[in-house]
Design goal:
The chain has 2 domains: 5-224, Rossmann fold; 225-299, Alpha-Beta Plaits (2-Layer Sandwich), CATH 3.30.70. 35% of the residues lie in helices and 28% in strands. It has helices spanning 45-52, 73-82, 98-106, 115-121, 137-148, 167-182, 194-200, 218-225, 237-247, 267-277, 292-300, and strands spanning 5-16, 19-30, 34-38, 60-65, 68-69, 83-86, 155-159, 186-191, 203-208, 211-216, 229-234, 252-254, 257-262, 284-288, 304-305, 308-309.
Amino acid sequence: MSKQTVIQVDSLVKKYKDTTAVDGVSFTVNKGEVFSFVGPNGAGKTTTVEILVCLRNLTAGKATVLGYDVSTRKGQQQIRKRVGVLPQDFSTFDMLTVKENINYYKKMYDRGQDVDELIKLVNLEHKTKALYKNLSGGLKKRVAIAITLVNDPDVVFLDEPTTGLDPKARRDLWNLIEGLRNQGKTIFLTTHYMDEAEVLSDRVVIISYGKIIANGTPSELILEHGGKTTLIVEEGGKDAYSVLKAKFPKAHLDNGDVLVPLNDKSDLPEAVMALNDAKTKFAELVVRRPNLEDVFLNLTGKKMVDGELN
């Protein structure tokens, strides 16, 4: 059964005077998937979303959402009715309760989901009468998700939804996103968190300086660009390095740890045996498998920390 395309982007360009924020990007998003648009701050993620949800005009190229052209008035009208959008810096009425806030936005649409059902969906039944201003960051995000869903959208755009949340609140939001996917919603997620994209996504597009540099499933990208599984000999120092360098020429020291790229399954027991035979002292052995952070590092030569390039 062929996949149904709900977003089609072809050679999309957005320029601001002499600055090109989005530089000829092309991709598709299929119905019912979590599609992650990943990259550092300023890469062009939010600008692309703003074009797709008809908040900003494109400079060149073409984009359609649910078959409607983002550049035509008719298309924009239809798209706005059928998508939900959670902006990065969303806020709502401090002095209204959770239920009052959701109900306020619900009244803006002809169609939509029941407010009580939305509250149940985001697990806020115990907070319906709480004022928005008194909620934690994580609970405010849940309210925002509920508001994003008031019109029962076919496509849900979530722009950096977990930025600023503590680890537990991030995990709770991941569970909520997975729940939406299980309901058949199409999720367009922008994020600079590689672990988030790796856990949640059916497909990932990595964007840097306005250009797409990788496109595929998390496993495809890791296999193609992630590099080798690595044995880390923590606090092995020069002694462990000398032992392992003889058998593994690409072993190297990193702040007292020894890192050994593993080419096949026999390398790990061979390395452990060499360390034992030489009675080498170390703190711990850790096997680290490549991930999307390695993919980004190998493609760009830079690490991404809290959305900034290092």
